[in-house]
What we know:
Elements lengths: L8 H13 L2 H13 L5 H27 L6 E6 L2 E7 L14 H23 L6 H24 L7 H5 L11 H19 L20 H27 L5 H28 L4 H16 L7 H26 L7 H19 L9 H31 L5 H6 L1 H6 L18
Antiparallel strand pairs: 1-2
Amino acid sequence: MIVSPVLTDSQTILCVVSLLIAPLACAGLALINAGLGRARSAAHTMTAAICVMAVAACVYVICGRSWQGFAGEASHSVTIGGKPWGWLGAAPSFFSGLSFDGSPAFLAAWMGIVAAGLAGLIPLGTGSERWRLSAICVSTTVLAGWTFPLFAHWVWAGGWLAQLGSNYGLGIGYVDLGGSGTIHVLGGLTALSLAWLLGPRKGKFGYDGMPMAIPGHNAVYILFGCLLALIGWTGSNAAGAILFAAAPSGRVALIAVNTFLGATSAGLGAAAITRVRFGKPDSSLTANGWIGGLVAVSATCAFLPPAAAILIGLIAGALVAFCVEQFELHLDLDDPGGSISVHAVAGIWGLLAGGALGRFPGTAQGQFLAQVIGVATLIGFVLPMTFALNWLINRFMGMRVAPDAERQGMDLAELGAGAYPEFVTHTDDFMQR
């Protein structure tokens, strides 16, 4: 979707406020990842989250924003059928040339910093308890410096997916206001690549191939992370709708309602599914369903009637609860944080459902097909590319820690201290008289 990059004062103020609270989504995901892992790796998970956000921010400022660009700015394009199709931004590095006065281009670059960090946090849930911190930083460098800004240009900066409407008559072009695909499916597919490359944790699968339960260590972290994520998601969805769809100020209320309904209905859906299947609701799967609902409604949050947001959320929660188990049973994927199901599966569902149920301006003819093309691009191009890039990283530096380090826990192996030292029980051999 391509819109004129002109905002009113009220839109600018709302966008700034929304971007100020958007990082709470990163805090929520970090807490969820830490809570879903074991206590002996909790400090490592949180430290890795801080490192991911720091690396992503710096790399995005250095070169990521240059590749992403903004609608109306110079870009690299190819001419097909007599029409230009943008494929890569051509903005200066280090935010050069940006006006630091709240211009739409600068606000979009600010959102890009947050979005790159959020996308980088998603694979952490999958690689938990076995992914080296140095490899995490290198992988994040590639994601924030190339993979994310490349796809973001196609979607948010007037690239070829956004031009499907104007150049090819498919609705208003591929729509992804809050980043269901640009942030979450991209991050979820990166998580899938890492699950293949890292392999499962020791003890996850028995000799018969059946997955063994490895419970998370802190349900309070997980559930509190859900509440933080709701606040942050509301901000990022509102900012994305204003910047990339010129949503009027009054539309922010609908965006906030749809975001809330998507999360709550998905949480209920996951709780109901686990209640029926296991006899009692599962708190971790309910939390994963909650986040899956946030992911699913983000793409078309400004164009959904509330009833559609509830439906999309309910199905997203059920999909997450089902896929987490099926991926373990049938694909041997060890995903402690459920990132593949929560972000990739729910994100794909949200992109397709939003294209079918959204109420878009003008004619919506071909809108669903535009969304299908975007999803096909993520699966058919982004997934192989991100797998190849991370395969190279693994080939040259090795991503997984040594077996002894994994056995003693990531906190001691990579940080030298645990997250909960007061909980360690010492024998008399270590007691001083």
